[in-house]
Amino acid sequence: MFTQIKTSSKNKESVTVLTRKFGLGAENIIARIAIAYSLQNGQHFSPLDVKDSGGKEYSKNVLFGSYYPMYAAIVCKHYNIKMSDKDLPRYFKIHLDDGIERIMADIKDNPNLSGFDYLFDKIHIGLEEIC
Question: Is residue 7 helix, strand or coil?
């Protein structure tokens, strides 16, 4: 069981930049989007791929709110692990950092992108993939 997750030191400022740029609410919203975006890309990581933990700190309750069971189930399904797996927190952290980096790369290519436009575009792409 874990109580907190920290981004990499590189991503500490990225969280603030994305939160300010997209205007979608508190910093934990960007973190949730980042985890989901990383998982959506389908890449599997090793638990040893964890980066440093010198960045933004989130308590489990702030990061996931009441949605923790849903996020945990998605990660467990993605890695074919159980909720009790000791590496579950590592996978959350890896996907948090990966998602933040992916979003930063997306906005670098399109600096005028708004938060809602970004989300609608990603939702549209996801819906096309499942249809």
Answer: coil
DSSP string, 33-84: HHHHHHHHTT----GGG-----S-EEEHHHHHGGGHHHHHHHHHHHHT--TT
E strand or H helix at 5, and its extent? strand 4-6
| Residue 74 pLDDT exceeds 70 | yes
Distance CA 121, CA 131 (A): 16
29 pLDDT more than 80: yes
- Measured on CA atoms in the order 96, 65, 1, 4, is the torsion positive or negative? positive
Amino acid at 87: D
User: What number is the average pLDDT over the span 43-68?
Assistant: 94
